């Protein structure tokens, strides 16, 4: 965050909590005029600090009661095989997140499905057929204790404008 000043940081902090806040209200919160605030928000978007604005949906209310983490170990680490694997994983709507890891497993998937039968079908019909996967380890989430998309920004230590 070297190129961000205190006001940029404050804008990002507010938008993380209230993505639908009006520009006028945002400007008042960070003590800027609405045009100056809008210019900063657009700059933050253009520079890639803001990726987008999304509604955070409650998965259980929409019938996705089974949340799990699936760890994958690959047999061979060839570029073309990994590319093919990742293309398939990215295309699967059940996969909410996919992370390349160090350590015992190569990839960690965060997966949401309606129930255990769907989880079984996802693993046996979607993951098993992918060539190159040596091992699949699944952990079912019993209770989601914390879920957040908010980064811990320290706006107090940013420089002033």
Give the topology.
Layout: H1 6-17, H2 23-30, H3 34-46, E1 66-74, H4 79-91, E2 95-100, E3 107-113, H5 116-127, E4 133-140
Antiparallel strand pairs: 1-3, 1-4, 2-3
Helix pairs in contact: 1-2, 2-3
What do the pLDDT scores average to? 94
Q: Could you say which overall geometry the principal axes of the C-alpha atoms support? A: elongated
Let me know the largest β-sheet.
4 strands, antiparallel
Which band does the percent of strand residues land in?
A: 15-25%
Rg of Cα set: 21 Å
CATH architecture of the largest domain: 2-Layer Sandwich
Order of helices and strands: HHHEHEEHE
Walk me through what this model shows.
The chain has helices spanning 6-17, 23-30, 34-46, 79-91, 116-127, and strands at 66-74, 95-100, 107-113, 133-140. Strand 2 (95-100) and strand 3 form a beta hairpin. The model has no long low-confidence stretch (mean pLDDT 94). The chain has a four-stranded antiparallel beta sheet with strand order 2-3-1-4. The longest helix is centred in the first third of the chain and has 13 residues, at 34-46. It has 161 residues and is an alpha+beta fold. The chain is elongated and about 55 Å long. It has five helices and four strands. It has two domains: 6-54, Arc Repressor Mutant, subunit A (Orthogonal Bundle), CATH 1.10.10.10; 60-140, Lrp/AsnC effector binding domain/regulation of amino acid metabolism (RAM) domain (Alpha-Beta Plaits), CATH 3.30.70.920.
């Amino acid at each position: 965050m070297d190129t961000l000043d205190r006001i940029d940081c404050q804008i990002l902090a507010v938008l993380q909590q209230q993505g639908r806040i009006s520009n006028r209200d945002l400007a008042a919160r960070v003590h800027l005029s609405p045009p100056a605030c809008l210019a900063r928000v657009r700059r933050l978007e253009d520079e890639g600090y803001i990726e987008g604005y999304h509604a955070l949906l409650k998965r259980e209310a929409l019938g996705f009661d089974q949340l799990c983490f699936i760890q994958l170990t690959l047999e061979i680490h060839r570029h073309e095989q990994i590319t093919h694997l990742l293309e398939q994983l990215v295309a699967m709507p059940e996969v909410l997140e996919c992370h390349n890891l160090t350590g015992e497993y190569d990839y960690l998937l965060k997966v949401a499905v309606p129930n255990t039968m769907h989880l079984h079908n996802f693993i046996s019909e979607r993951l098993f057929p992918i060539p190159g996967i040596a091992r699949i380890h699944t952990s079912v989430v019993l209770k989601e204790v914390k879920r957040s998309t908010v980064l811990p920004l320290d706006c107090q230590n940013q420089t002033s404008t």
